[in-house]
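User: I'm writing a short report section on ligand binding and want a predicted complex to refer to. Could you take this sequence and copper (II) ion and write out the structure as tokens? A short remark afterwards would be nice.
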Amino acid sequence: MKCRKNVKNLTDDQKRRYVAAFLALKSQDSVIHPGGQSRYDDFVETHLNAMMAEVDDNLGILITPGWAHRDSVFFPWHRELLYQFEKLLQAVDPTVTIPYWDWTREQNSAAAGFPFKHGFIGVGGTNADSDRVKRDPAAPPVDATHPYIYPFDPEAWSPTIKVIDPPPDTLNFFQRQFGERPDAPNLSQNDVTVTGTVTNFRAAINGGNNYLTLRSRSENLHNLVHRWVGGNMLRMTSPNDPVFFMHPSSLTRPVPILLSTIFRKGSLLTKRSSSELRDADQFISG
Ligand SMILES: [Cu+2]
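Assistant: Sure. The structure tokens for the complex follow:
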């Protein structure tokens, strides 16, 4: 049985293996467009296409939800996308599972489970350089004979699927903009209400005693994380930032617990202890 783990509980070796596996997909050939992009990019394109299929009227009212968002399909579609991605990772390295980032708790570089570290998937963007994600300035210079000291080199990572229409998207470098948007200055909290229930994960899901409410509240919280990270994560091509896969991995973590509770029509926190919800550190992947 393979389990997905909190980033904070990965060993250095497990982090290296995870990075090596997704970098391998970045150099494997595409199945969707052989010769034209990487296998990793196929996942970026699939997410883009799912969102491009959404149709709003001129007032922003949803007409067609597309394949993956703003509808009941949000959880299962993303679970399947992660499952397919994880199977490819495991073809590279059978020990690998997608870790999850608990963005309700691991919210700054001091936190062990904060994934944005030089030694893992790179840090936040550099303000003075258009929020570009850069290498560790303390690392030795990189040249032909001296590779970057960490497995993931953010300056060698290229987002390759562009949104053509609409809107035109010219972001062709790796960018993160932590907390820069006025509508997402902070990450979602778990036990502390920040600005009402929209940023309080526990309150949002606790009130959601039917699937549709749970879906919409969870998706809104998930959108907040996309906006907080910013840069590539803001786009329909958000899997261009490798943290994409750790983000719904966290969100779908409690879903089996929530669904079993909802279908028994009970209250979440009486049927399931808060510690069970909080500390479900590992869960069965797929
Ligand atoms: Cu999505």
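A remark for your report: The first strand starts at residue 3 and ends at 4. The beta strands are 3-4, 54-56, 62-65, 125-126, 132-133, 283-284.
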